[in-house]
C-alpha cells in the first residue's frame, strides 16, 4: 500500500533512539524527508546514516535538548533549512523519573510539565498555520497507555501525559476542517531502552530478578510479549498517511491488548 508520504516533510522529536527513531525510520521508508532531533550527535548521525543508506526517503538531524529554553526555535530553524517546512510533526519526549505520585516533588512535576507539555504545545502552535494554509498536515503525539490506565510507579508520567490528551482532542476539533489531523499514539510495553530502564528499576525496588520482572510484565499482556519498535513505527506511519485523513482526535493504542478497558 502506498501511504502517500513520498516527499512529505516530517519533524520527529526525540528521535535518536527508541520510539522516536522507529517513527522516523518508518516515515523515511515510505519516502518522507525526515528531520531527527535529540541530544546525542553521535547517535543522531548514526541513525541518519542508516536511514539514508536504506532509502527511499532521506534524513537530516539537529542536536536539540528539550529542556533548553530555545529548543523550539532551534528545531524550527533546522526544519526550515533542511526540509523547507513541516507537513508531519511527531511530538515525542522522554519520560519523567518513575515513582509514586505521593512521593513526587512539586518542583520536578513543574519542570517535567514544562518539557513534556508546554514544549509540545508551543512547537505545534508554530507549525500549524502553514499546515492549515496548505490544507494538509499531521500532528502525532506519542503518549503512554498510562493516560487510559494509570501505570503503577509512574505517577508523574500518568499525570503529565494526561494533560496532552485534552490538549490533543481540543486541537483536533479546531483544525479538522483545514485538512489537519491530530492524534495521540499510545505505546504499551514496546521493547526500548526506556522499558529496559523501567524493568531494571522495578527489579531493584522489588528485589526480584530482572528476568522475573519481565516474565511478570509479559504475563499482563494478552499478546504475551513486548512489542517491537518496528510495529510501533508502522502505526505512526499509517496515522501520517493519506489513507488516515479521516482519523483525528483519537487515542490509538499500540499495546498488545494490555489496556484492560474497552
UniProtKB/TrEMBL annotation:
<dbReference type="InterPro" id="IPR050259">
    <property type="entry name" value="SDR"/>
</dbReference>
<dbReference type="Pfam" id="PF13561">
    <property type="entry name" value="adh_short_C2"/>
</dbReference>
<protein>
    <submittedName>
        <fullName>SDR family oxidoreductase</fullName>
    </submittedName>
</protein>
<comment type="similarity">
    <text>Belongs to the short-chain dehydrogenases/reductases (SDR) family.</text>
</comment>
<dbReference type="InterPro" id="IPR036291">
    <property type="entry name" value="NAD(P)-bd_dom_sf"/>
</dbReference>
<dbReference type="InterPro" id="IPR002347">
    <property type="entry name" value="SDR_fam"/>
</dbReference>
Amino acid at each position: 500500500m502506498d501511504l502517500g508520504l513520498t516527499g512529505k516533510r516530517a519533524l520527529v522529536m526525540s528521535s535518536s533512539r527508541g520510539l522516536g527513531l522507529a517513527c522516523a525510520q518508518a516515515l523515511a521508508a515510505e519516502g518522507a524527508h525526515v528531520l531527527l532531533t535529540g541530544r546525542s550527535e553521535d547517535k543522531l548521525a548514526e541513525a541518519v546514516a542508516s536511514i539514508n543508506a536504506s532509502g527511499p526517503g532521506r534524513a537530516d538531524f539537529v542536536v536539540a535538548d528539550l529542556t533548553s529554553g530555545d529548543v523550539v526555535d532551534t528545531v524550527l530553524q533546522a526544519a526550515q533549512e533542511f526540509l523547507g517546512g513541516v507537513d508531519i510533526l511527531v511530538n515525542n519526549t522522554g519520560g519523567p523519573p518513575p515513582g509514586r505520585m505521593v512521593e513526587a516533588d512539586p518542583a520536578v512535576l513543574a519542570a517535567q510539565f514544562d518539557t513534556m507539555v508546554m514544549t509540545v504545545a508551543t512547537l505545534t502552535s508554530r507549525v500549524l498555520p502553514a499546515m492549515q494554509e496548505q490544507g494538509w498536515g499531521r500532528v502525532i503525539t506519542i503518549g503512554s497507555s498510562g493516560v487510559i490506565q494509570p501505570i503503577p510507579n509512574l505517577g508523574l508520567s500518568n499525570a503529565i501525559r494526561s494533560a496532552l490528551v485534552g490538549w490533543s482532542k481540543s486541537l483536533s476539533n479546531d483544525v479538522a476542517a483545514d485538512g489537519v489531523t491530530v492524534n495521540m499514539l499510545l505505546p504499551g510495553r514496546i521493547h526500548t531502552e526506556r522499558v529496559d530502564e523501567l524493568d531494571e528499576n522495578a527489579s531493584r525496588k522489588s528485589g526480584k530478578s530482572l528476568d522475573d520482572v519481565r516474565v511478570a510484565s509479559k504475563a499482563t499482556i494478552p499478546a504475551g510479549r513486548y512489542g517491537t519498535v518496528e510495529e510501533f513505527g508502522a502505526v505512526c506511519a499509517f496515522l501520517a498517511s493519506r489513507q488516515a485523513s479521516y482519523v483525528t482526535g483519537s487515542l490509538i493504542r499500540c499495546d498488545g491488548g494490555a489496556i484492560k478497558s474497552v
